User: Fold this.
Amino acid sequence: MAATPLTAEPVAIVGAGVVTPIGGDLDAFWAALDAGIDGLSPIERFPVDDLRVGRGGEIKKLPLDSDLVGTPCRASRLLVAAAQDLRARVAIDATPARVAVVVGTAVGGVEELEHALHDDRGARRAAAALYDSPAHALARHLGARGPVVTVSTGCASGATALGLGADLLHDDAADLVVAGGYDVLCRFVMRGFDALRALTRDEVRPFDRRRSGLLLGEAAALVALRRLPDASQERLGTLLGYGSASDASHISAPDPEGRGLERAVRAALRQAGVAPDAIDFVSAHGTATPLNDPIECAVLARVLGERRRAVPVNSIKANLGHTMGAAAVLEAIMCLLASRHGLIPPTLNLDEPDPACDLDFVRGAARPARPRVSLSTSLGFGGCNGALVLEGAV
Amino acid sequence: MKGPALHALGFLSAWGAGVGVLPADARLAAAGRPVLSLGRPERDGERFRRTTREGLLALAAVESALEDGGAHRLAIAGDRTALVYVTAAAYAPSNQRFIEGRGGSIRFAETAPAVVPAEVAIELHLSGPYAIFLGGPPATLRGIWHAAGLIADGECDRALVLGVEIFEECEGLYARSGRLCRRPLVEAAACLWLEAGQGTLSLESGRDGAGETGTDLRRRLGETFCCEPLAALDSWRRMDRAGTLNLTGRWRGETARLVWTDPMPRPLLAATRREEP
Assistant:
């Protein structure tokens, strides 16, 4: 990383590719968000009979020839599926040694560890259980021979990956960075969130007074990043800034006052060289847990100040479930697609806003608006907080 | 970019504290043991009763760096200290324990790699910028690079690069995955304290594998995954050198090379020389 000033050079987001429970590619993903499609369903891929909650955002069929991946690892397969979508839209045409891969994940290849411990005691699955394995599978698929980086800041991992991907360009460590995030639904993570009583038996209702928890989802989302002068005008948007901060308060619960998230947001705005009053839209973390939503809203209210009721806010986790490492990347892509299409997707199941969440939520139907500058917020286990400031190509 | 100054370094391994205690040959010294454990540090207080071994080792590494720097823990508290955590596999024991149903489901949160630096952040009140890199030695070099960038950009006044690797609980898995090689797996925990410096820092990565360094150190240390570059740093500063440091790390076919000029400013170097026996 070069000695970048506090305000960093913006980085072009040339294009994106995704695989999600509501759409197997970018166009289907956007169409489903616009239409308010709910992709949550009973989980079929592994047993859930012993869990309190057995629903989630499961991808029923991967749009992928398994021979392309060469591994049974579902995390790697999700990443390669998203990469196929990305490559259909963007040429990965830099010199291979100058193509970097940066991905974020909360649970990595942990499903391979489950297999290695239970039903397949071969060497390959044990080796694939390391969390950085899927990133290397993606690099092999892309033919990328530059840096291969895996980051894991809990459910803020996707935001971290985009921020560090931009750093690689600032530092001239690569000419093209494929950055993003992924995570799979597996028994490990379902058992864990079920045990924490974080999963709801009801609908996922971000910011609603009746909210009772989240549902998990699986997805992979990738973007291609280039330095602005190297990018064509036909881009999705621009990453203006990234910020991170630690809560230093609890290993699994957010800081009650959201101080870490606020520091991350203000750091991202500072790096972007953008004042809070320039924010046109906020894509909130919005997990629909009783704890997260009011804390996050209090932070956004402090940051937005008098404009707190004038800036549209949404959460797309009721569509997809919480896709963990992919969440922040999908939400960043959504911000840019909102700019492109002039529509902000609604927050599903938000019928009775919690009075403690006093912001201008987009609900009911997509709202016609063409945000130029968007803020996306993320929080994760370990008190990890991340924020992205993005500019749509309007 | 502008290079940081190596303010302090704590390095703990199954061999003991610092690289001065390393044997001449790890394989011979291990005497057939495939894994050498660092054990579980003892700590008083209810908060630590259920803390994972990797979390306690992380804290011990940071405290070792504080001791090395002659600093009280308050010197690093607050939002002007960045924390960068690196590991290849320290999360594996917690994951295995949860999958096997041991320790109770409530311990799920501990399976996240992010929880190890969180234990440090909570205990020492570190609320600044934050990053976690997963992988082997190249991840550590990238962590140093990232930390240096945060300092150079004014995002923090100091940065801690914390590495932890533990293996004991997953010895069977390592045996099956072919990770038990000629060198023993040696548990380690290390913390590098960086401050603003006057030198330069550059990082290159590629797949050529050329110019690898540290063979002698590796023979003495054993396999410590991400902690290896931090051991190399400790070794370098003990050799009473000034000037340019080259650190190389390899993992999964990737080679990363960090070139760091003047990591030990003269006053620090002089202090280190005085303390060496």
Remarks:
- Chain B has one domain: 2-275.
- The longest strand of chain B covers residues 188-206.
- The domain at 2-275 of chain B is CATH 3.40.47.10 (Peroxisomal Thiolase; Chain A, domain 1).
